[in-house]
TrEMBL record:
This is Ribosomal RNA small subunit methyltransferase H. GO terms for biological process: rRNA base methylation. The gene is rsmH. It catalyses: cytidine(1402) in 16S rRNA + S-adenosyl-L-methionine = N(4)-methylcytidine(1402) in 16S rRNA + S-adenosyl-L-homocysteine + H(+). Coiled coil: none annotated. It comes from Pseudoscardovia suis. Pfam families: Methyltransf_5. S-adenosyl-L-methionine binds at A73, G74, H75, D92, F121, D142, Q149. Belongs to the methyltransferase superfamily. RsmH family. Specifically methylates the N4 position of cytidine in position 1402 (C1402) of 16S rRNA. Its EC number is 2.1.1.199.
Amino acid sequence: MELHKPDDCQTGGRIGGGTQDGVGANADLSAIHTPVLLDDCVDLVTSRLVERHHAGSPAGEHPIIVDCTLGLAGHSMAFLKACPEARLIGIDRDPEALALATRRMDDAGLSDRFTPVHAAFDELSDVLDRLGVARVDAVFMDLGLSSLQIDEADRGFSYSHDAPLDMRMDTTQTLTAADVLNTYDTDRLRQIFKEYGEERFAGPIAKRIGEERRESPITTSAQLSRLVDRTVPRAHRAPGNPAKRVFQALRIEVNGELDKLAGTLPQAALHLAVGGRLVVESYHSLEDRTVKRFMSLGLHIDAPADLPVVPQDAQPYFKDLTHGAIKADETERQRNPRSSSVRLRAVELIRPIPPARRQGLAELVDAGYAGFARGEAAGPAGAKGRSPRERAHRSSHTNHNSSHFSHSAKERMPRR
C-alpha cells in the first residue's frame, strides 16, 4: 500500500529547517539518542512482517508501521532496516524533533519509505484518515521523553539544570509549566501533584507555591526545586531529587500526557489489521498501569463467568506477546541509564474486534484518563462486574494463546 500524503498533512518538510540550541546540521544525533530496548522492540514490531514477506506477500503489498512517538527516529530507522518492504508513518508533536528525525531518515536513505507527520499521538485516527490508511500492521509508542527534550536546558524538563519552566513537548502550544504554577489555584495544584506525581507532600508543596507566588512568580526550574527542597521533610524523602515527582506531574499536566495516552490506545487497536501489533514502552507507574489495563480489555473473555459456552464474539481479541512487562537488563541499564524504569508490553490482534466491543473502544477514545482510570468508560461487559479475583481466574483460562516470541528476547525477560 502506498501512502497518500494530502496537502493538509503537516510533515517534517513543511515545519521549517531551523533547529534550536546548537543541534545543528552537523550534530551527531546517534550520540544524542540511544533507543531503549531496541532489539526487543524491533523483534516485536517487525518479526511477523518479515516472516510474512518471506512466506510470499502479494506483489505491491507493503506493511505499514506507525511510530506514534517518533522522537529522533532511533526505533523507526531500525524498524525500516529490519523490514525492507515496510512503510512507516512517524508522528511527533515536537517540530524540532520531527525535522531532525526527517534529516536522519534522509541521511540513511530511508526517506522514500517514511512519512513524517506533525501531530499529537491522540490524533492518530485523523492522521490515518488524512493519509488514506484504514488498517496498519503495527503501532509503536515510546512514552519516554526524548533525549533532545531532556538535554536541551531551555526546555525546562529537567530539575538538574536551571531553565525557564516551559515543559512543552509541542512548542507551538501556549500553556507552559510556569503558567500552571502561577495561575492554577492551590487545590488544583495539590490534585495534580498527588494524582500525576503520586507525591506524598502534595498539599504542603501546593500551599508553599501559593505563598511564594504572591511575592513573585515562580518561573525557573531552580526556583521550583529549591521550594520543594524546603518543603519536603528530609526524614521522609525517597531516593533521588525530592522535586522529581513534582516535575513529572507538571510535565504530564502541561502536555496532557495521560489523557492523550488513554485516548490513543483504543484508536490504535481500532486501526490494527488482524495480525497487527501494539507495542508500548512506558516509564512510570501511571503510564504502565494505563497500558496494562487497556491491553487486558482484549485479553479477557467478555461474558459472564457462569456461561457454559463462550460466544465467539466474546472471545479475547488480543494475544499477549510479552507475558507481562519486559524490563531492561543490567547491561542495558549500564549502557543507557534512562532505560532503568522502562516497561515494555505488546499484544497482537488475533481476530477482528466484534462490533459491540469496537463501540466500547470508540467510547474510550473520548473518556480521558480520569474516566478510564476509574473504569467509568465502556469496557468488556464481563470484566466490569467481576472482582479482581474473578478476573484473574478468567484470565488463567484465556491467556493460553500467548505467543512464541524470539528466543533471544525471552531469555532476558524479567517479569513484573
